[in-house]
Write a structure and sequence with these properties.
Elements: E1 2-4, H1 6-13, H2 17-25, E2 31-34, H3 35-43, H4 48-58, E3 63-64, H5 68-81, H6 86-98, E4 102-103
Parallel strand pairs: 1-2, 1-4, 2-3
Helix pairs in contact: 1-2, 5-6
């Protein structure tokens, strides 16, 4: 399982051609979404129409939530480096420990 990060999905929502094409070439069953990413994307919706559009886009993907162990690992990692946002540390820690990695838009170029 590989996880999609918010930046990839934002690019898809904005119609950024490389992201749309790339996502279309990957079987949907190979990807999932961190629940925190879904919440981050919902936070950016200006109205209920955008919420429904986002929900349709995300519906095929399973949502994964960090476990208590993921949170502990992220806390340790964050305390060692204090670099980057806390939620990003949590998502990276969860993805790296449980699924291998997350796809970011920087990997699409």
């Amino acid at each position: 399982m590989r996880l999609l990060d918010a930046d990839v999905l934002i690019d898809v929502l904005r119609g950024y051609s490389p992201a749309v094409q790339w996502l279309g070439t990957i079987p949907r069953e190979e990807f999932g979404l961190p629940g925190l990413v879904v919440m981050e994307l919902l936070e950016g919706c200006p109205d209920m129409h955008a919420v429904r559009q986002l929900q349709r886009l995300l519906a095929p993907y399973p949502v994964y939530w960090p476990t208590e162990q993921d949170c502990e690992r992220a806390l340790t990692m964050f305390a060692r480096s204090i670099s980057g946002p806390v939620l990003a540390s949590l998502m990276r820690s969860s993805a790296n420990a449980r699924w291998g990695w997350m796809f970011h838009s920087s990997r699409l170029t």
